[in-house]
Design a protein that fits this description.
Helix content: over 70%
Number of strands: 0
Structural class: mainly alpha
Largest sheet: none
Number of helices: 10
Distance between the termini: 37 Å
Shape: globular
Length: 206
């Protein structure tokens, strides 16, 4: 694989990861409501989901999703439903932003698991990723490229996605930001809930 092709793919993946959308909203929501660990686990889960879609494209499986309107719509509607669920949980949440004190072992587990799962699910329930990677690979991957080259691109996409959302989670969870967020927790939760619900609506009606 040419270095220029790899750099082009990496740049496009970075732009795709940084574009605002449901994934960014969920990572921010988990970080604000449950702290840095939840944000980090959300980022890791989402990165694994992106890697899986990219790998599926390399193996030819994503073609099935892209060419089947039924499968595409089922995944799309499940994704919208999951976003609405997150919006509801956020709206009714009374949980405060975590301060500097360490949570108990049970609390820590309760924070980590939903964070990782929500990140993974948001990526997995986004069928547009299949189309994105099909278009991307068709432009920069040669027809005779080996499976190894394709998997390198898949890992590149997943790594870039994970690093971006790790940066988002880390930046939001600084002490000064958390202290400010804790003073406006209720309004912020309501805002996140509305934004996530609107994003779900755009998925359904787009």
């Amino acid at each position: 694989m040419l270095l220029s092709s790899w750099l082009s793919v990496a740049g496009i993946c970075a732009l795709g990861a940084m574009s605002p959308g449901p994934s960014l909203a969920v990572v921010m929501n988990n970080t604000v409501n449950h702290g840095r660990k939840a944000g980090i686990l959300t980022a890791v889960g989402h990165g694994l989901g992106v890697t899986a879609y990219a790998a599926a494209t390399a193996l030819g499986l994503a073609v099935v999703i892209a060419q089947s309107a039924l499968i595409f719509d089922v995944i799309r509607y499940l994704g919208a439903a999951f976003l609405l669920f997150i919006a509801y949980k956020t709206w009714v949440s009374t949980q405060q932003v975590k301060q500097q004190s360490e949570p108990s072992a049970d609390q820590d587990k309760a924070i980590k698991t939903p964070g990782f799962i929500s990140g993974l699910m948001i990526a997995a329930l986004n069928p547009k990723m299949a189309i994105f990677f099909l278009a991307l690979f068709s432009q920069f991957v040669q027809l005779d490229a080996g499976l190894g080259d394709k998997l390198i691109l898949a890992l590149t996409a997943g790594t870039i996605d994970t690093l971006w959302y790790l940066l988002v989670a880390w930046g939001l969870a600084t002490p000064k930001v958390l202290n400010w967020l804790s003073l406006h927790q209720k309004k912020i939760n309501q805002l996140f809930a509305l934004v996530i619900a609107l994003l779900a609506a755009t998925i359904v009606f787009k």
